[in-house]
Amino acid sequence: MQILVTVDTEADDQWKAGEASVCVDNVYALPRFQALCDRYEVKPTYLVTHEVAVDARASSLLKSWQDERRAEVGAHLHPWTTPPLERGEAHARAFPSELSDEVLRAKLDMLTRKIEEVLAQRPTSYRAGRWGFNMQQATILGELGYIVDTSITPGVSWKKTRGALDGVGGPDFTREAIAPHMLNDKVLEVPMTILRTGFLRRTRWLRIFRNTKKRDFENVFAAAQRMKLPAVVFMIHSSELAVGKSPYVKNEAELTHVYARLEDLFILCKKRGIVSATLSSFARDYHG
Length: 288
Description:
Blueprint: E1 2-9, H1 30-39, E2 45-48, H2 50-53, H3 56-67, E3 72-77, H4 101-119, E4 125-128, H5 135-144, E5 148-149, E6 181-182, E7 188-189, E8 194-197, E9 202-205, H6 214-226, E10 231-237, H7 252-272, E11 275-276, H8 279-285
Helix pairs in contact: 4-5
């Protein structure tokens, strides 16, 4: 089994209502995270939004790690910060799955071309903002050269979560498969790892929350290995790796908790023989 460490690499405070922030100060704190990954031979996949790609300092950091083969850089579509922007769009948090075909294509094309321009390498991995994925995106991703998506959250419905002001809410993934599977003839889906674990069969995401303990990771890995999953997907927002840039990490104590749990996770991977892969390297080697 492999672990795919993914980082939604985006602007600060993307949970706030109103005009979308395009300040990416949190990204400048990522060298600490990358250094920890290097120490444990973990190669993360940074899934970047448009505002990160156009920031010279942020894109320079990411390009150096990519070029040194210490990480992969993929794409993360936030419709509210990705041109072309329509009037009022920056105030809403539309799911990509709510966009028209024309708008979705324009935004995905813009995001892809901007990442390729600043990193001198076309992205091949993707996650939809707010997990707002649909097959329309799978088709466009295949046309743009992507080979892997990691947007599906098995067992979770976002239908009652508000997106666009006049939208229909997010997608329903309650019946989606947990294991990797092909979406079409070009794009592999590697779902977010969300499993029922332990004696009480609690649903757990492979993420770090305020109450996350090392045993939570152990339970997820045990369940995944019983199911013979070829990979598990861990995710974190880049803004969770700095203080005061997200609702999840408001002070130094909470940041210390995040880094302690990250170290627990990486040490546990070593003990269990779970090796790290980037999203695209896993997809290229996947034979289903």
